[in-house]
Structures are given as C-alpha cells and as structure tokens.
Request: fold
Amino acid sequence: MSLPRTPSFRLENRRALVAGASSGIGQACAVALAEAGAHVTLVARRAEALDETVAQMRNAGWQAEALALDITDLAATDTSVVQRGPFDILVNSAGLARHTPAVDTTAQDYDAVTDLNVKAAYFLTRAVAKGLIAAGKPGSLMNISSQMAHVGGIDRAVYCATKHAVEGFTKAMAIEWGPHAIRVNTICPTFIRTPLGEQTLAIPERRRWIEDKIKLGRVGEVEDIMGAAVFLASDAAALITGTSLLIDGGWTAD
Reply:
C-alpha cells in the first residue's frame, strides 16, 4: 500500500506579481510568497515605500523586485505584464474605500472606488491570464476581496458593491480559464489592522460593532492572511478555483 503525500506548499521556480504591495495585506502576501520560494514583483504607486520593502526582502535572502505602477492605468499595466511576465501567481491587493452613507455618495467617490476595486482588478487579472495562456502555463490568480463581498455594512454601499463584483468576475473567469489550468479565487478578510483598516478601528462605536460581529473576538492581523495566499498559490490548492476563502473570524457564519 502506498500512502498519499501532502502536495507541496513551496513555490520555487514560480514568479508572482503582487499589486498594492507597499504596505498592509499586499506587503504581507508578497513576503509570504517570497518566503515560500517565489520570485516576487511588488507593484504599487508609492515608489519609495515599495523600494524599502524590496530592500528588506532582499536582505532576508528572498527574491524580490519593485515596479512602480498605478494599475488604474490599464495600458501601462498591460505593457508591464507583457514585458515582465508571464507570472505564475497574481495577488491583487490594491484597493480603495471611501465610506459614507449611501445617500451621501458622490459620483466622484463612486468612480474612484470602482475604477480601482473593479475595473483595474478585472483588467490586471485578465492581463496576467493572457500571458499564461499565451505561454501555455498554469497559474493561480487571487484578488483580495472582503467579507463585505458576502454581507452588507454600515456606510459601505459602494465598497460592498465593488467587492460583490469581484466575486462575480472571479467565478466567470474561473469557468473560462479552467481548461487552461488557471485557477482564479478571492481571499476575503474581515477588518485587518492595516493603515486602511485603522481608519475604521479608530472610531469607538465602529470598533465595538466589529468586535461584536467577529466570533473569535479580535480584529485580524496581516499574518492571518499570509498562509492563505501561499496555500492558494501552491499545489496544495490544485483543485480550488472559482471560490472565496473567507478569513473573517466567523463574521459571516450567521
């Protein structure tokens, strides 16, 4: 009798593109993938913060390089992916939130949030997939979504709409690209202690609401997301596509 063996979580000889990688969840995912052996290209608009992250990663002995890029510039993004790809792994953590009551939503805020959270995410995912298809390679593509892609939230009508949209195109892309062995999934965190998350956590009544909803009784840390990114990128997740990995402390359980 031959016993089964756990598929590898290691990512040697794979190239990853991580957007929104200068801080927060994106930075943590870049570190996690590099630590697992991948060569990681970190993308963000803030070149100085990006370079600092890459320098620290290289000092740790990991393979990393910086690419200063605004992914809402679709033409520049396509060009960069063609020039530097194909990428075996994508983690898109670039995102924006402008929280207001729905009756106070401005067209400018709506456009800014949807342009990054939906349009840029869609076309970045497409660009990486096109490179993989042309090269005849499999891949794992991830968008950092949110628990708010599965529920509603106070003052979050636009944000929820964008994350629900990401879930929709993820499922459709997974169906379309499955025959190419390209997997497409989302990671859906609860409130994570990041510069973006702290804007909400700093409001006492919002903090109480959050801690009441999270069944494990604490907000998330970026370390809570890192293992999920490595898992979905690896051979251990070879049959997982078109779905969401909820890291929400039980928020959506009821």
